[in-house]
Amino acid sequence: MFVSEGAPERLSTERPETVLLRRIALRDRAAFAELFSLVAPKVKAYLIRLGTEAAGAEELTQDVLLTVWRKADQFDPAKAGPLTWIFVIARNRRIDALRRERSTVTYGFEPPEQADEDTPSAEAQLSGTEREIRVREALKLLPPDQQEVVRRSFFDEQPHSEIAEALNLPLGTVKSRLRLAFAKLRDRLEDL
Amino acid sequence: MTGAAVTPRHHPSEATLAQYVAGTLRPGFDVVVAAHLSTCAHCRAEAARLEAVGAAMLDEQAPVDMSADALDRALARIETPEAEVPPAPTLAEVLTPRRRRWLAPGVWTAKVDTPRYASDRVYLLGVGPGISTADHGHGGLEFTQVISGALQDGDIVYRAGDFIEHDADHEHQPVVWGDEPCVCLFATQGRLKPKGWLGRLVFALADV
Predict the structure, then answer these.
(1) Which end of chain A, N or C, is more open, meaning fewer C-beta atoms within 10 Å of its C-beta?
(2) Does the keyword DNA-binding belong to this entry (chain A) (predicted)?
(3) What's the angle, vertex CA A152, arms to CA A150 and CA B65, rounded to 5?
(4) Same domain, A21 and A97
(5) Chain A from 18 to 37: CB within 8 A of any B CB
(6) Whole-angstrom distance, CA of residue A29 vs CA of residue A32
(7) Dihedral over alpha carbons B49, B55, B56, B60 (to 10 degrees)
(8) Structural domain of residue A90, as residue ranges?
């Protein structure tokens, strides 16, 4: 990244979700309807990809969007892009639902929603949306086999052994491929 | 219980952090990663980056249609007032040992009250200075977060704040290092596999 004087150059692409979330924070029902149509089918697909059956994914998506409505005033586009914010809500709602099913013990711990301190100054200059764009580009630049293992880390409970089995690779190879993929991703996102 | 004023030097692997961020870690193992994050700014920043990767995963999914009345139901639901939900216990509360079981002078365990698979164990272990644990192997994955004190495993000394990740092929005999008792948070997949009869006896008593 070049260091420039004055205000950093902004990408003009403000995602529609950001604008909608701002309006939803002001209790705009039309904006909620619009965001619902835009995002709910992706959230549902994501939950299905994680192994939730279709009816459960539909219900859980309803919960996610309801939480979006209730928490919209907490959305801060400087901290996280709109999809990152929605991803975290979906992740948390899914864990809550799973824990209720899986155990009689109350799930006591809410994962931290966002690392909200120790924010380096360079990070403050990048909006959440710009960060999302950079991440998508960095992912695309990985060789396909490395993209695959990164994806599986997000979707499999035992990525090492499942990747080894699915790709017919020794466990050691899987581990080094994972390390390599994440190291590359990390190098490209270090300044985020 | 989780605070450590040192900079951790041993961290979860990137793949483990990605799983934590995705919510796909085995239940119970996530608590150990959360305990590490509570002491490690480096990993918190990494987790924030990985959340943006998660957003990309969400965004690239081919949409699956919601049912025809889904939007109407959602619009009706946002009009209903929010039910009071009791606040979830904090991480510090989850990690406060309630009932310590003393296994030997200077050695105790306490179960951590968190969802887990029935075959897994999530517990705190406190061991006094100079005491060595029984030589053991693992039935699967093991995560450890050093809460206080330090322990030595092979050539490496792990201190408060450090995170240790082992899988099934690892056998070891960690020893408490230094003059302080060492308290660690563990999540283990399956039972530990002690070597020798004394280890088997102690591990059976400890239910680990």
Answers:
(1) N
(2) yes
(3) 110
(4) yes
(5) 29, 32-33, 36-37
(6) 5
(7) 170
(8) 16-102
Is position A183 within any domain?
Answer: yes
CA atoms within 13 A on the CB side of A125: 14
* A97, A45: one domain: yes
The conformation of residue B164, written as its DSSP 8-state character, comes to E
Cα B39–Cα B44–Cα B48 angle in degrees, nearest 5 = 165
* Domain end point (choices A54, A82, A102): A102
Smallest Cβ distance to B91: which of A57, A103, A109?
A109
Q: To probe the interface with B, which of A107, A146, A163 has the most B CB atoms within 10 Å?
A: A107
Q: Report pTM.
A: 0.85
Task: Give the domain CATH number at A75.
Answer: 1.10.1740.10
Chain B residue with Cα closest to A86: B55
Pick the CATH number of B8-208 from 2.60.120.10, 3.90.1150.10, 3.30.70.920, 1.10.510.10: 2.60.120.10
Which residues face B48 on adjacent strands? none
List, in order, residues 6 or more apart from B103 with CB less than 8 Å away: B109, B202, B205, B206
d(CA B137, CA B174): 11
A87 shares its domain with A147: no
Per residue in B181-206, pLDDT (tens digit) is: 999 999 998 776 666 666 666 666 66
**Domain count along chain A:** 2
Distance CA B135, CA B186 (A): 16
Residue located via tokens 């200059």:
A125
**Maximum Cα–Cα distance across chain B:** 66
| Contact at CB, B114 and A186, closer than 8 angstroms | no
